[in-house]
Each structure stands twice: as structure tokens, then as C-alpha cells.
Amino acid sequence: MLEKHLEYLSQDPYGMAREAKQEYLRKCLQDLIIHHRDNCSEYARVLEALAYDDSSAKELEDLPFLPVQLFKEFELMSVPKSAVVKTMMSSGTSGQKRSKVFLDRPTAMAQSRCLSNIMASFIGKKRLPMIILDTELAKKDPRMFSARGAGIIGFSLFGRDVFFALDDNMEIRWKDLQEYIERHSGERIVLFGYTYIIWQYIVKAMQNKKKNMGLTDGTLFHIGGWKKLQAESVSAQTYNQALKDVCGDIDIHNYYGMAEQLGSVFVECENGHMHCSVFSDVIIRDPKDFRACGIGEEGLVELISVLPSSYPGHVLLTEDWGRIMGEDDCPCGRKGKYFELQGRIKKAEIRGCSDTYGQ
Amino acid sequence: MTNMEKYINAFKESLEIDDSIITDELAFDSIPEWDSVGHMRLMASLEDTFDIMFETEDIMDFSSLGKGKEILKKYNVDL
Fold first, then answer.
1. Element (H or E) spanning A344, and its range?
2. Does A124 touch chain B (CB under 8 A)?
3. pLDDT cut 70: percent of chain A above it
4. Which pLDDT score, from 0 to 100, does residue A91 have?
5. Phi then psi dihedrals of residue A33, to 5 deg
């Protein structure tokens, strides 16, 4: 994040309505475009090839976007290599090229703060007992900064007495888990995991053993995408119900984000709508001519984030398919656009979205 | 052990580093041992040692050994 935008990080993530948000985002994005053009020669060449002109970009949809695949082909950064403190790799299943995302300290810090702010609006600022529905990946290979491992570490910041529910063999640590839940009875517990891993190694395993965690107050966040679940014909509704059957009385929030835009995530509200925060926005584009689609129209998902300053990932065209459902008027009260994801475009490469285990 | 010794010890044990690099300037991500994983271990160790609970904000602000001393003051830990 650019230093002059840091003050925005403490904004209410869902408090800004369209007009104010458009103006604020346009200002941030214009600053970012200039910053990346001045500091990343590849990005400058893209702008040149597009004949991009600052003064002609009136709306967010007029801003130039980069296809997310570019991060697989090129090492794009807008800071000197010496300033890079972390290189994130997208998950990508074997044999495929993986994205490389270069983080300097300010960008890494802004990502944590942004995620923290968004999460606090769902679970409050206090750190709560946390169950990670995964194995302690970092223990095995601490230097491995896969998106899956980094996601867990990034999230565990909001918890205390963090407990990993799976052992090294992806088996549930049932006895320890029961003790943990016992120890924190009466407290609200946060749970975190990857969509498919939860299904495969928590839900199915517990169904087989006819077990139930018996949670009485919990909030679960999961990320990773539905591709593999769609292959098993599992709908969001089936998933949520099965999860509640084995966990107990919990709220479930699916959320969405890219390794190329960590931090400014999109969280599903209690009505099942994926929400943009004030740090991000979504535009749907017609794949035939890339025009911006209206509310309700399906197309390619473009994602905007105010966070990336060490690499030009502020406006990305993804390989995801979706539609905007509305803006500022979700019954949950959150301002901003809300949308629905409908999967990956057919010609896109298969990507694991952090949700790969030994496959 | 004084509180300062306990503080330094938490760094040495949770990050597995030795005395030679212990200074106020020792910063998060400046050595391989103090990465995000090490950071979470360090925070847990300090919380146990001084029986406190950091706010998320302070975990993110805890950017160096020196900065950590300031943060601990907020939790009434005299070093």
C-alpha cells in the first residue's frame, strides 16, 4: 500500500456507499497506476501498448487491467529486489506454472491490517480461541511459503491458543480436539480452513465416525473455491448443512481472494452474498469485448485492490466467472457491491487455489 | 530471572537464535528465524511468560525487539 493511503486502512470495511467509494477508489487507483508505471518497466510497457491516458479514465471500469496469468509468465515488481521480504507462490497443481507475487514490508503489513480489519467486522477485535481445520503445515517445512501455508499463518494472527485439528497424516486429532473444546466451553471459537480440505478430512471423516464437535458458539471461515466440490456435486447448501451437522451451532462464511491480492478478501454474508470491502471492488466483463457488464449480467471477474504497491496487482482480470447481484442494498446492511461466483472459465488452466493436498 | 532476561529468553528460545544477534534493532523478517511462523511462536511465548494477551494490532506492530519493549509497557510489564 502506498504510504499516503495508509490512513484509509482503519476505515469501516463496509460503511462506504457508491458515490464516495468510487471517488476514493479512483484516487487510490490513479496513484497506484502512476506508482507502478514509474517503478515497473513491464507495467509501463503494457500501459504504453494500451495507449492508456490518465485523463480519459473517468470510471473504475476504464482503468487498465492485467490478466492474472501474467504473474506466472513474468516476475513483476515495483520495488527494488532488495526490498522484497516475501515471495508468495500461488498453489497451482503440479506441472503448472505458479504465480509469483513479490511483497515488500509495507505491502505485507497492509495485507495483514486489511484482513484484520475485515475479520474484526465479523468476529470483533478480541482474539478468540481458534481451531485451524488443517495440519500444522509450517512445522513440516517452515520456509515453504505456499498460499495454503501463508493463509493459515495470516489467519492465526486473529486467534489465541491456536489448535490444529488434523495431524501430519490428515487425521482428526479427536481426543485433543475434544479437550480443546472442553477447555474453551462457554467461549466463542473461530474456525478456519480450506473449503475442500474441510469437506474431505473433517466433514467426511466425522460423518464416517458419527462424531460431532458439539460447538455452541462458533464462526467458521473457509476459502479455496468450489471446483472439486462441484465435481462431487456438493452445493453450498449441502456443504453448510453437513458442516453444521458435524460441528454444531456455527456461522459459516465462505470467502474469496487471490494469492495475487492477499488481504483485501471478499467475505460471504449471512445471506450468502460475496461482499466487496472498501479496500476492493469487482467489475464483471463480457469476455467477447471486455466491456463492463451491468448488475445481474454474467461475465469474467475483474478484481480491484488498493493494497498492492510492491507489484502491479491492483487491477486484475481473473479466470473466474460470476455476476454482480447488487450494490449498497444487501439485506445484511453492508455497503458496497455484492456478487456471486459461478466457477472458473472453461479454457482456464486448472488451479488448486491453496486447496491442494498431495495431489 | 528479571523480566528483561525473560524477555530476551523468549526471543532466544522461540526463534532459536543466540545472544550475538540480540539488539534492539533486531527486526521482524530481518533474519530467516524471525518470519511469520517464528513471530507467532514468539508472541505465544511472551504471552505465556508474562501472562498477558496481546491485541491483534500489537502483534502486527511488534516489528522489532526494541519496539516490543514499548508494546509490553502497555500491558504493564516492566522490563
1. strand A337-344
2. no
3. 92
4. 66
5. -60, -45
What does the alpha-carbon distance between residue B66 and residue B64 come to, in Å, rounded to a whole number? 5
Write the CA distances from B67 to A7, A10, A134, B64, B70, integer angstroms: 21, 21, 32, 5, 5
- Estimate the crossing angle of helix B3-15 against helix B36-50, to 10 degrees: 150
Question: If we measure between CA atoms, which residue out of B65, B48, B67, B74 comes closest to residue B12?
Answer: B65
Domains, chain A, in order of start with CATH, read 1-80+276-349 (2.30.38.10), 126-268 (3.40.50)
Residue A77 has pLDDT above 80, yes or no: yes
Instruction: Kindly identify which residue of chain A lies nearest to residue B52, measuring between CA atoms.
Output: A160
Amino acid A123 reads I
- Quote the cell numbers at residue A136: 500444522
Q: Does B55 touch chain A (CB under 8 A)?
A: yes
The grid coordinates listed for A339 are 456478487
**Helix A41-49 / helix A18-39 crossing angle, nearest 10 deg:** 110
| φ and ψ at residue A230, rounded to 5 degrees | -60, -40
Residue A171's nearest CA partner among A195, A197, A139 is A197
Residue A354 confidence class, pLDDT cut points 50, 70, 90: low
Give the contacts of A261 (CB within 8 A, at least 6 positions apart). Answer: A280, A303, A305, A307, A308, A313, A316
C-beta separation of A261 from A301 below 8 A: no
Distance, in Å, from the CA atom of A193 to the CA atom of A252, rounded to the nearest integer, reads 11
Domain ranges of chain B: 3-74
Taking alpha carbons only, the member of A224, A160, A225, A152 closest to residue A192 is: A152
> Residue type for A348, please?
A
pTM, entire model: 0.89
CB count, 10 Å around CB of A141?
A: 10
Top CATH class, B3-74: mainly alpha
User: In chain B, how many H helices and how many E strands?
Assistant: 4, 0
Q: What's the whole-number mean pLDDT along residues B19-34? A: 92
Which one of B30, B31, B33, B37 would you mutate to disrupt binding with A, by most A Cβ within 10 Å of its Cβ? B37
